[in-house]
């Protein structure tokens, strides 16, 4: 838990390779998807500015009328008054029209942004579900969460705010400058003269803004990761009374985040000041140059007011551009981070045209034949499994044993195709796993992992999980079984079981029935986050029941009975033997007591298959297995 402000988990190398051109193409593809909404928004913006920028002309006209009336020796005051009132009415009508068009322009464009956010979030989440442990092992969960939540929101703002204000500025400037030029070309040039200088000066500030925005977003991810990790491991922190250190480290992270944010605020303030300067420099020029011309008599007061009206009207779009710069750069930095996840290609690929299908139970009497053909595997550089060849006949029960770290769980991960072998091939029913659609393979596998994972739902919902998948996913070829798993286990013989009976049956086989009787709510008992309210053994047995419910053709128990007492273990294994008749079971275990019941035992040592045979054969051979078995027996004798 103690870590520097940057996480020790480094993204895998392929994460950082989404080039700017590719990112622009992806951005464009989202924009293009909602081009209709953006186009409608642009039309409304045109209408807004067309109406709003017609106001200065009316104002100028009214002022000139009043000025003429005031200076003329005799004038028809009534007609001047009605002309001015008419101009005022037109101004009100224009302002109302511009207001309505402005509301529609915003709702249309923001709607497009929301659509993009919705799509991006869904696509990202779907993509995340395709990724393998290699990805999740290399990126902190808090960082992933931050990308899917905060960063996607920033991308929405990039589309909505940037499009709105950039298009608005372009339209406003086009109409405004055209009218200003028509009124007075030289005054327009005076107003625009300082702009190139200021824009040039802004370049370095904009670059600093982009860099600093990325730093702040990375720091935010760091903090999210730390909070997420520390809350998950709060018991460990308390057990070692390290709360104060963790609080101090979090404060340091927070202080750094604060500093970086202050830095960002400084850059933004500088940029905003420059933008406001640009926006107001025009007014200043009009006041100095224009006022002199009015006094000299070379410009009407009405023209002066109208010209000034355009300059003032252009101030807001200019100031808004300052905001756009911030949103734009924050959005681009966020999109870069989103793309790193979105474009991460899982190493385990779906088969293409050459995809095959597993034979059905009707086609084969016994199911679950597995063959490892010279399989080697490395997570990074150092090999974990080395040239393993073994055959597990369909319908057999085997065990994989070996010292800790010898590669047993890794073998399971390869069987479930979380990773592909670096060399060699794994075949199920004679089919290379790389040719099987992952969904099909996984729907046929029941894996009970070493560390049981329960969702914060009821026990019943946790158990039903596998069944839900079979019923929910139409693309899975195998349907949820309805026949009894063990003959005669429940009353009703050959009849089809209801879902409740199937769950009750799985609960009984997993020896969870007695525990449920003690829970007031039975299957409806909530288990808290990750199942905190259950004991280790209860959690393990819940995950066993979950795996059994899908009637898998291959059941893998990865040290899944480690927290269960030997008596219960024996009961579960006996029932499993009956249940898995005709199908394959693989037990990974550190306990040798129950191994006399399995058909074959494979012994791993430092990633190599060093022995295989039955319990009796291996004991007789006097190798590693016999040595481990003898040591365990001795330990048990000493403890009893
Ligand atoms: N995700 C991973 N990334 C890198 N190395 C890993 C990863 N998972 C496991 N390893 C390494 O692979 C080796 C084999 O681990 P594995 O979990 O397969 O052993 P095991 O035999 O199941 O051990 P145990 O009996 O203690 O569960 C270990 O050295 C471990 O550190």
Under CATH, the topology of the largest domain is which?
A: ABC transporter transmembrane region fold
Q: What share of the residues does DSSP label as strand, in percent?
A: 5-15%
- The level 1 CATH classification of the largest domain is Mainly Alpha
Count structural domains: 2
SSE string, helix = H, strand = E?
A: HHHHHHHHHHHEEEHEEHEHHHHEHEEEHH
Query: What is the CA-based Rg, rounded?
Result: 36 Å
Helix/strand-derived class? alpha/beta
| CATH superfamily descriptor of the largest domain | ABC transporter type 1, transmembrane domain
Major β-sheet profile? 6 strands, mixed
Q: For the largest beta sheet, what order do the strands appear in spatially? A: 6-7-8-3-9-10
| Small-molecule binders | adenosine-5'-triphosphate
**What is the general shape?**
elongated
Q: How large is the count of helical segments?
A: 20
Number of strands: 10
* Distance, first to last CA: 38 Å
Return the average pLDDT rounded to an integer.
83
Helix-residue proportion: 55-70%
Please state the second-level CATH architecture of the largest domain.
Answer: Up-down Bundle
Q: pLDDT below 50 for ≥5 consecutive residues: which ranges?
A: 1-13
């Amino acid at each position: 838990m103690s870590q520097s402000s940057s996480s020790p988990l480094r993204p895998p190398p392929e994460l950082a390779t989404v080039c700017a051109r590719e990112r622009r193409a992806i951005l464009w593809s989202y924009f293009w998807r909602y081009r209709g909404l953006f186009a409608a928004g642009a039309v409304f913006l045109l209408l807004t500015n067309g109406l709003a920028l017609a106001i200065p002309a009316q104002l100028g006209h009214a002022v000139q009328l009043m000025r003429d009336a005031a200076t003329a020796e005799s004038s028809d005051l009534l007609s001047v008054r009605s002309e001015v009132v008419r101009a005022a009415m037109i101004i009100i009508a224009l302002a109302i029209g511009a207001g309505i068009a402005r509301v529609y322009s915003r709702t249309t464009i923001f709607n497009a942004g929301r659509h993009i956010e919705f799509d991006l979030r869904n696509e990202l989440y779907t993509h995340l579900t395709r990724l393998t442990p290699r990805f999740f092992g290399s990126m902190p969960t808090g960082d992933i969460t931050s990308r899917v939540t905060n960063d996607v929101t920033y991308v929405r703002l990039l589309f909505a705010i940037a499009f709105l204000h950039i298009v608005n500025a372009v339209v406003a400037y086009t109409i405004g400058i055209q009218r200003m030029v028509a009124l007075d070309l030289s005054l327009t040039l005076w107003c625009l003269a300082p702009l190139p200088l200021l824009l040039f000066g802004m370049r370095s500030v904009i670059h600093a803004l982009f860099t600093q925005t990325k730093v702040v977003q990375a720091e935010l991810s760091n903090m999210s990761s730390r909070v997420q990790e520390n809350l998950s491991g709060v018991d460990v922190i308390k057990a070692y009374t390290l709360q104060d250190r963790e609080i101090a480290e979090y404060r340091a992270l927070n202080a750094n985040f604060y500093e970086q944010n202050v830095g960002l605020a400084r850059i933004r303030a500088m940029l905003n000041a420059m933008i406001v300067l640009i926006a107001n420099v025009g007014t200043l020029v009009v006041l100095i140059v224009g006022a002199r011309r009015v006094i000299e008599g070379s410009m009407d007061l009405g023209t002066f007011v109208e010209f000034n009206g355009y300059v003032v009207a252009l101030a807001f779009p200019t100031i808004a551009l300052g905001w756009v710069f911030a949103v734009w750069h924050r959005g681009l930095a966020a999109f870069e981070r989103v793309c790193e996840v979105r474009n991460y290609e899982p190493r385990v690929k779906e088969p293409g045209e050459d995809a095959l299908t597993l034979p059905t139970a009707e086609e084969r009497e016994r199911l679950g034949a597995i063959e490892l053909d010279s399989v080697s595997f490395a997570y990074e550089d150092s090999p974990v499994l080395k040239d393993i060849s073994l055959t597990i006949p369909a319908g057999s029960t085997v065990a994989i044993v070996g010292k800790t770290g010898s590669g047993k769980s890794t073998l399971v991960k390869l069987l479930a195709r979380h990773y592909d072998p670096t060399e060699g091939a794994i075949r199920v029913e004679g089919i290379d796993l790389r040719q099987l659609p992952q969904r099909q393979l996984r729907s046929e596998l029941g894996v009970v992992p070493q560390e049981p994972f329960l969702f914060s739902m009821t026990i019943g919902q946790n158990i039903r999980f596998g069944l839900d998948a079979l019923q929910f996913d139409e693309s899975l070829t195998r349907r949820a079984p309805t026949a009894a798993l063990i003959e005669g286990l429940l009353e009703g013989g050959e009849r089809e079981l209801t879902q409740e009976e199937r769950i009750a049956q799985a609960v009984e086989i997993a020896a969870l029935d007695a525990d449920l009787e003690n829970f007031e709510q039975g299957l409806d008992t909530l288990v808290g986050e990750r199942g905190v309210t259950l004991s280790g053994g209860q959690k393990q047995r819940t995950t066993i029941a979950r795996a059994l419910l899908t009637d898998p053709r291959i059941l893998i128990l990865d040290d899944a009975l480690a927290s269960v007492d030997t008596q219960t273990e024996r009961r579960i294994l006996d029932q499993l033997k009956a249940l898995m008749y005709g199908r394959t079971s693989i037990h990974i275990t550190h306990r040798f007591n129950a191994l006399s019941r399995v058909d074959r035992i494979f012994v791993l040592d430092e990633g190599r298959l060093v022995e295989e045979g039955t319990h009796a054969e291996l004991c007789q051979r006097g190798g590693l297995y016999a040595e481990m078995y003898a040591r365990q027996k001795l330990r048990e004798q000493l403890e009893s």
